Amino acid sequence: MTARGTAPGIRARIADLLVDGDEREIAFIERLVASFLERAPVMLADLDAAIAAGDSAVAAHRAHALKGAAANLGVSGVAGLCAEAERLADAGRLGEALGHPGLLRSALAEAGDRFTEVLGDLRSGLPIVPRPA
């Protein structure tokens, strides 16, 4: 789904980060988002490699790190998948997490689209938190 409002977690978190919505704040948020979108694929590749190697300890650590980065910006889909991968790794059931990297790639792509929408709305002066129906 690509309609605005499909990622209320992202919109709500960006709104939480705003105080005045001035240019400096917007630029700061854009840097945070850019950093996440740049680092997340590397973090995912590290997680994927740990899962493929069957290294539960490293996989749990990598999943935990990506979960935290995603949760910090309201990317709940990614954070949830990472939490599940972390639980599986901690339980020694890493084989059940083999599909997680593919799901995470899709979730990260969706998050990138949502960030583009939210930042576009922010730059345009539109409200970033959807109003209740």
UniProtKB/TrEMBL annotation:
CDD domains, sorted: HPT
Q: A GO BP term, please?
A: phosphorelay signal transduction system
What InterPro entries would the database entry show? Answer: HPT_dom_sf (IPR036641), Sig_transdc_His_kin_Hpt_dom (IPR008207)
Lineage top rank: taxon: Bacteria
Q: Which residues carry this modification: Phosphohistidine?
A: H64
Asked if the record carries the keyword Phosphoprotein, the reply is: yes
Instruction: Please list the coiled coil stretches.
Output: none
Instruction: Pinpoint the HPt domain residues.
Output: 25-122
The record's section on SMART domains has: HPT
Q: Name the keywords, alphabetized.
A: Phosphoprotein
Protein known as: HPt domain-containing protein
